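U., I forgot to send this yesterday:
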Amino acid sequence: MATDPSVRGNPTQGRRRKALAALATLVAILAVLAISGLGAKGIDQLTGEGPPLSYTVEETGHGCSSIVYLPARLVPGTRRQLPPRDWTAFERRPGAKFVGGDIVRVSVEGGSARELTLTGIRFSVEKRHRPGGAVFAGPCNESVEGRGFLADLEAQPPRLIASSASGEGLFSPIGLGATSRRPVVFPWTVSLARRPLRLFVVVEAHHCYCVWSARIPWVSGDDRGVIKVDNGGRGYTVVGIEGLSSFAPLAGKWHQYRVAQAQN
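Result:
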């Protein structure tokens, strides 16, 4: 049975249609990733030549021991309320910022044969005017254990002051200490074969109202990229404690302490 030439087409047109279809599919996938918030994690998985490499970034604070800044408009109402039982919800309320320091957890996953080399870490800091407000302190003292970096945001330029390549590195509420610590030396190669890499980026700032971000360049085989620690491009905020009135729970109520002074 004869075939209509207009239906048969030609090989060049067929290849072009397939290429356009593949491009449309890729654009659709990237759009879904952007809408769903996967961002750089999903794009890394699509563009890597080796086994999939992905990462997530999450600001964790210091748990129940966080010190939180609230802008002036929120202070009177907060003081009239009882101290919260759910401190995590309190520190994540709109307008709240971490005081004196911040902790961001980076988790990197790769294929079974992946080795990842981190070639450095670079910090960017923008110092802004601090609006009026007050400090509210958490009710306990806890720490986080793991690998990580501690940076002084107020140094010119911002610089690392401690690091731990060991899972025994201990992050205190403000600062990094460890009973057994092996500093990170760049380039730093870690294996992702057995478990994901969990890395804490800890920063300190005692005077400034600082908006900060970090970039961690990496290489794995022929692939390379940058882990962006930047809150989706918005940066993270740390508020210096100097000159702020402080409140902490006492007998089930907020008790005001003397005006806080900056640490040296």
